[in-house]
Amino acid sequence: METLFVVLIGMVAAILANRNIAVFNDGLRPIVSEHIEGRLNRRELGLTAFAMSFGLVIGFGIPFTISASIILIHSILLGTDIIGLLTPKNKWGTPVAALIGGLYGWGLIAGLEGFVKLFDYLPVNFLEPLGEVGTPVVVTFMAFPALAVAMQFGIKKGVLTFVVAALVRQLAVFVNEQGLITIGDNVVSINQEGMALIVGMIFLFVYAIKEKASEGSSVDLASLFSDKVRSIKKNVVFFMVIGGLIAGATNLMLMAGDPISLNLLSEGQTADAGIAAAARAIGFIPLVASTAIATGVYSPVGFTLIFVVGFFSPNVWLALIIGAAIIFAEVMLLSYIARFLDKYPGVRNSGENIRNAMTKLLEVALLIGGANASNMIAPGFGFFFIAGFYLLNEVAGRPIVRMAVGPVGAIAVGIIANILVAFGLMTIPQ
Known about the structure:
Keywords: Membrane, Transmembrane, Transmembrane helix
Protein name: YhfT family protein
Transmembrane segments: 49-80, 92-113, 133-151, 158-175, 187-209, 236-257, 277-309, 316-338, 364-392, 404-428
Pfam families: YhfT
InterPro entries: Uncharacterised_YhfT
Strand order of the largest sheet: 1-4
């Protein structure tokens, strides 16, 4: 039954990614939205997904999974993001994605250590450094409300929003470092990026709500936000299925949603793991909700509350049912949020600015991440290659979209580094 749960999660998650319904990587949701709206082709989307997620699977998800003998959710869902987006979205591509996703889930259960060691045979193992491509995304993502405010309401308000969000983030870091928030004997860490994002979104929506509608104008509920949320709602059954499966697998102590709860679970501290998961979920809600509303692409784990359900449910079947119900309620809540936003034209009109702000930030974050990853793979040469690659791409009229330059460039540097080492033209980086 344990293997069946993981195989089914792999299959359903790969289908959701393949059909552009949901992806786990927060930074990928705006990029998938760009593809849905025709501004990014499938090949570039797949390459970007691979570059953003594969290094994290190898360098982050799998090591935690091996060390605890419990699957860190990143291991499976970052992998299914890649599988789903690399396979074509057509009548044969979706079944193939489901099959590969299921096999991938089975492979995680069957054995991971040999897979990791396979890449050690490369002269330059660039898979771990490749994880740096996505590192700046979540951190920089918290700045998108400030950029959206500046675009719509002026640079002064944008700067104010940015400064306050940055201060709140640092206060959250201080609170975490000092252990000021506790539940019982457990120190609770708050998500600093999540707190900064909350503040930024509050500023954005306060400014937008103050923007009055002109006389005689009416609010159209078929706005950008409502359209995006409706596209999520029509797929709610898929979310209920995967939400129930993940809650059930968590209850079986097969997986966890973050390294902290994973380590607590491996030590048999299920209640403490549940508390840690709940604290993380609270900080994750604004990130998932805002990206879902703005992009129409959801997360297969929703607000991550399904992990809390799994930890505290008395048995696997109740966890499965409650997990499905929780993620159903989350999707329905998105609809109410969108309708609330539709009452205010300033908020509704901010949709395009939010999308543009996300795109601009991702272009910068992925370029920085790609440069850092490249320089870790081949010190000096990495920065040189990414800078030249970016500028030549600009001069050539951007045959590769800006968002894909960093990730694709980092992969290219990894391949080139191995070729140079093989021919004796480069020493292996220490």
